[in-house]
Amino acid sequence: MKLHRIVLDTNVLVSALMSKLGNPAKIYRMFLSETVLIVFSDEIMDEYIDVLHRPHLKLSSDDVNKVINAIKLFGECIEPVPSTFPMIDEDDRIFYDVANSAGAYLITGNKRHYPDEPFIFTPADFLDL
After folding, report:
1. Where are the beta strands (DSSP E) in 55-124?
2. Domains of the chain: which residue ranges?
3. Taking a C-beta distance cutoff of 8 angstroms, is the pair 24, 12 a contact?
4. d(C-alpha 113, C-alpha 97), whole Å
5. Which residues sit opposite 7 in a β-bridge?
6. Which CATH class is domain 4-127?
7. What are 68's strand-pairing partners?
8. pTM
């Protein structure tokens, strides 16, 4: 079986930590069971660290650190090829570029922020693959 490569938008990772029963958490558990491989860049990792540690999210520091360390240890860090077309939210470009460069699925709760591409999925749609 081919290992699916995925890029997780930060909102999916936040949701996975907030609700252990939701689709984002199921996808994260797939990563832990080596069914999928999370692909990221240094810029994505910086965003994960920044966002997941925001006090208003009230996420457990232990849980956040475990997730970050697991992704660093068992994920794949790449240097993406940058795209140049306009995007609704420029902060989302890095996720698009990493997924596009890595031949990975981009999983996001904000599909409307991205171009209409066949490799971009909501968590529910990805789980239906």
Report:
1. 76-77, 105-107, 120-121
2. 4-127
3. yes
4. 13
5. 106
6. alpha beta
7. none
8. 0.95
